[in-house]
Every structure is written in structure tokens, then in C-alpha cells.
């Protein structure tokens, strides 16, 4: 039943602990991505509005996109406390992930918003919509469906970046597996299970995104 | 005193529009009476579409004042003088104007009915039922009662343009602007759109301003025709005179060229 390579007994023993860690990973992913989706939209709108605000927002996006996520995680967790902002590891990780992916999402939103023809804005002016209603009722509903696949890719990418949180000891999947390995000197089982968990969840989200995409396309017949 | 019958519905007072070094409209003075149907014709680049776009506030003006229904739209009184209009003022005055575009600009994610109720509900605050009743009436008027559940992509160009007309009318404008509304249509579909506009002319006490290349329609429909050339009104008059015996040489050349092409 068990060999040197793979010990089923050990694998089954660690499964519940890894399941709990998987919950942490999923929580980190879902919370960060939800924030990133909102933040990305806000950044995209800021970038399209006015020279000063637009420039500042663009500069921020470029800064974040041009530096490694791991540095950002370390910065928020280790450097910010020097300035009086102390966060627990999970919160620091969420902030880093959502900032990082928020900036990537803002690029996607921008492409989506710019793809809406100018005539749509003009029709809204002619119908006397306020800017807010124009954006909310007319522009956004047309900008979102085409960018769902691109946003979905970032969801999967963010999910696969959560192991970076192990660097600040968040008890997510990889951190947990690593601890098990150093306790028992057996890495095969925990790392394999963690890898498979990532694989399965990534595939499941990809299918989910595909489904959402088709649903949205069906609704907005073009 | 009933001021609304005294003043022109639309008045361009010394309006100038430039794109960089290019002057598109030069000191335009034009008055349009309530209920008047005015056709604007002229070669491309003569500034005729810009007239409508400025009136719809889609283009900023560089000089002069545009008046709508007796009050300045592009400007507002402040401290005894006139200052450029704030967005709120612009929105209020603009609500009297509706526009139909060359490329329809329907909302692709909404049905024909949805297109016609969206603005009445969000802008005018009408309850859905009331908005739907009125939209259904208008869609019926443009001959598309049975298409109200269709999305723009499921409609022909002519049908889309008729929905666009209904959508604009749903806001109860006093002035309707038609910007080359048949130019993007296949020739056999122009008729149904022009038919709707014709109907509108007789059924409503509506001021209408249209930029058009349909000389036959302009001649039959308009009370007055303005021929634009290089940013100025080169000649204007009742269609019978302007089309039959144009005085200006430019007008003669233009009409000869256009009518030969038919």
C-alpha cells in the first residue's frame, strides 16, 4: 500500500489539515479578487478622467505592475509597520494581492471601456443622461461582457500567486505543506496534494468563467 | 404675455466653431421658428453636421450664443453678465432637444422597448409602466409594435433607425435633430425612415432640423432649406425657390452635382 515515494496513511492523515489550508487560500483569492475588481474599475475610470488625476492613477498602476508582487507583500507586511501601520499577515497579503491585481484589472477595464463606441456616449448626451447613469446603465454593461475572459485569467493568476503569502507565514496551502514537510521530512505527499488542489481548482474556475462568458454573450445579442 | 410664441425656438447668434486652425462654422446666425422644418444641405465639410452637434451640446462652441426656446443654452446669466453654462444649466435646456444619428447609436444590450424606456425612466423618473405604455405607442407609430422585444442586432438598419426615432421622441423633445439619418441605410430602406419623419412632421407640432442628402425629401418636406458652404449659410429660402431657381452660384453648382448623381 505504501512505498518510500508515496505513503497513503500519511497522505490521508494530512488531508484534513490541508483542506483547512485550502479554505484560507480560497478566502484569500476570493476576497482579493473582489477588491481587485472594484479597485481596477475605479483606477480605470480615474485614468480616463482629467489630466492630473489620470496621470497619478497611471503612475500608480505602472509602479505596481513594474514591481514584483513578493516585494509588495514584504513592503506592506514589514515596512508599513515602521510608519505605524501594522497589519496581520492575512490582511497584508489581501492588500498586496488586491492592489497588484487591481492594477492589472484596470488595464483590462480600460480596454473594455474604450471599445464602447463614442456614439453610445453621444446618444446618452442626446437623451440627457447624467454622466453617472450613462456610465452605469449604458457604457459599463457593454464594456464588461467582452472582458470577462481577460478578467477570468487574472482570477486564476491571482489564485496561483497566493502561495507567495507563505513568505509572510499566512497559513495557506503551500505554507501548510511546507511546515508539514519540515516537521516530518516528507514533502512528497503534502506538495503533491497541494499541487493537485491548485490544478483542480484552476480548472474548475476556468470552466466557471467560460460558463459566465457564454451566459453574458447570450444575453447581449450583438 | 406668452413669450413662447414670440421667440424663435432655436437661435444661433454669431456662433463660431473651430477645430484647431480650421474654422468649421464662421459667425453663424440662424433662427428657427417653433414648428418649423428646416433642411440643411451642402457639400461635406461645409459644417452642416456641426450645426446639429453644437445644438445637441456634443461640440463646444468657440464663439457666440445658442438660444433654445427663448433662453441661452450655451451661456447663463450671472452677476448681470453672461457666463459659459454650467453642466446643470446645459442639461436642463438640452432636455428640450432630441437627436437621431446617422449610425443610430441604439443601445445594443437593450431591446427596442428597453431602448425607448431607459431614458424616460432614469432621466425623467417615469414609472416603468408609464414608460412602457408610451414606448409601445411610439414603436407603434414608427410601425414596429411587433418588434419591441427584438435587440438592435436583430433589426434591419431601417428598423433600427425607426427605433432610434421612437427613443428620441420618448423624451418629449420640442426640437428634433436628424443628422443624415438615411445615409447609412441601403437605398431601399430609406423610404420607411423618411415615411416616419414625414408622419412626424404632420402629427406633431415639433421643430425639426435635418441635415440631409435626400434633396427630393428636403424639397417636399422642409419649410426652409439652408445651403451651407465653407462654414457659412450661402443661401437659404423656401424649397421651391432654392431648388428650382437658386440665386447663388455655389448653390447652383452643388445642386447640379447632386442631382446629376441621382
Concise description?
With 222 residues, chain A is mainly alpha-helical. Chain A has helices at residues 8-48, 51-65, 69-79, 89-114, 118-126, 131-161, 173-184, 188-219. Chain A has 8 helices and no strands.
Could you list some keywords that capture this structure?
heterodimer; A: 222 residues; mainly alpha; flat; B: 262 residues; alpha/beta; six-stranded mixed beta sheet; four-stranded antiparallel beta sheet; 12 strands; 39% helix
**Total DSSP helices of chain A:** 8
Strand content of chain A: under 5%
Low-pLDDT runs of chain A: none
Q: How far is it from the N-terminal to the C-terminal residue of chain B, by CA? A: 49 Å
Rg of chain B, nearest Å: 19 Å
Number of continuous helical runs of chain B: 10
- From the helix content, strand content and strand pairing of chain B, which structural class follows? alpha/beta
The count of strands of chain A amounts to 0
Overall, the morphology of chain A is flat
Percent of residues of chain B in beta strands? 25-35%
Order of helices and strands of chain B: HEEEHEEEEHEHHHEHEHEEHH
| Most extensive protein-chain contact, per-chain counts | A-B, 20 and 26 residues
Shape of chain B: globular
The largest β sheet of chain B comes out as: 6 strands, mixed
- How would you classify the helix and strand content of chain A by structural class? mainly alpha
Amino acid at each position: 500500500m505504501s512505498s518510500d515515494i508515496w505513503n497513503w496513511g500519511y497522505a490521508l492523515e494530512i488531508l484534513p489539515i490541508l483542506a483547512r489550508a485550502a479554505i484560507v487560500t480560497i478566502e484569500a483569492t476570493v476576497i482579493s479578487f473582489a477588491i481587485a475588481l472594484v479597485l481596477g474599475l475605479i483606477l480605470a475610470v480615474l485614468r480616463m478622467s482629467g489630466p492630473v488625476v489620470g496621470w497619478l492613477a497611471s503612475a500608480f498602476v505602472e509602479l505596481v505592475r513594474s514591481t514584483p508582487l513578493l516585494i509588495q507583500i514584504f513592503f506592506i507586511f514589514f515596512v508599513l509597520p515602521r510608519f505605524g501601520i501594522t497589519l496581520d499577515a492575512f490582511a497584508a497579503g489581501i492588500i498586496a494581492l488586491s492592489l497588484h491585481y487591481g492594477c492589472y484589472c484596470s488595464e483590462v477595464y480600460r480596454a473594455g471601456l474604450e471599445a464602447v463606441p463614442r456614439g453610445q456616449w453621444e446618444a446618452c448626451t442626446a437623451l440627457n443622461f447624467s454622466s453617472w447613469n450613462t456610465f452605469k446603465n449604458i457604457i459599463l454593461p457593454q464594456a464588461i461582457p467582452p472582458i470577462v475572459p481577460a478578467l477570468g485569467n487574472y482570477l486564476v493568476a491571482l489564485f496561483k500567486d497566493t502561495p507567495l503569502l507563505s513568505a509572510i507565514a499566512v497559513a495557506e496551502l503551500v505554507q501548510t505543506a511546507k511546515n508539514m514537510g519540515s516537521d516530518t521530512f516528507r514533502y512528497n505527499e503534502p506538495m503533491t496534494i497541494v499541487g493537485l488542489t491548485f490544478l483542480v481548482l484552476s480548472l474548475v474556475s476556468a470552466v466557471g468563467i467560460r460558463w459566465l462568458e457564454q451566459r453574458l454573450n447570450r444575453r447581449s445579442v450583438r | 404675455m406668452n413669450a413662447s410664441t414670440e421667440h424663435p425656438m432655436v437661435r444661433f447668434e454669431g456662433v463660431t466653431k473651430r477645430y484647431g486652425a480650421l474654422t468649421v462654422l464662421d459667425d453663424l446666425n440662424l433662427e428657427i421658428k417653433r414648428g418649423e422644418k428646416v433642411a440643411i444641405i451642402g457639400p461635406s465639410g461645409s459644417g452642416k453636421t456641426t450645426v446639429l452637434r453644437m445644438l445637441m451640446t456634443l461640440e463646444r462652441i468657440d464663439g457666440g450664443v445658442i438660444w433654445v426656446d427663448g433662453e441661452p443654452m450655451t451661456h447663463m446669466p450671472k452677476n448681470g453678465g453672461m457666463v459659459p453654462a454650467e453642466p446643470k444649466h446645459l442639461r436642463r435646456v438640452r432636455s428640450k432637444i432630441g437627436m437621431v444619428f446617422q449610425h443610430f447609436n441604439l443601445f445594443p444590450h437593450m431591446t427596442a422597448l428597453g431602448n425607448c424606456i431607459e431614458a424616460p425612466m432614469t432621466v425623467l423618473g417615469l414609472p416603468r409602466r408609464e414608460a412602457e405604455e408610451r414606448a409601445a405607442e411610439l414603436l407603434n407609430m414608427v410601425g414596429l409594435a411587433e418588434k419591441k422585444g427584438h435587440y438592435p442586432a436583430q433589426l434591419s438598419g431601417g428598423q433600427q433607425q425607426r427605433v432610434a426615432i421612437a427613443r428620441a421622441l420618448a423624451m418629449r423633445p420640442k426640437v428634433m435633430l436628424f443628422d443624415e439619418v438615411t445615409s447609412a441605410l441601403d437605398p431601399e430602406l430609406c423610404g420607411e425612415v423618411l415615411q416616419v419623419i414625414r408622419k412626424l412632421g404632420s402629427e406633431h407640432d415639433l421643430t425639426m432640423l435635418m441635415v440631409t442628402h435626400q434633396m427630393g425629401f428636403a424639397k417636399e418636406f422642409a419649410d426652409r432649406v439652408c445651403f451651407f458652404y465653407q462654414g457659412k449659410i450661402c443661401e437659404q429660402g423656401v424649397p421651391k425657390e432654392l431648388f428650382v431657381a437658386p440665386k447663388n452660384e455655389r448653390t447652383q453648382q452643388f445642386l447640379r452635382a447632386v442631382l446629376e448623381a441621382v
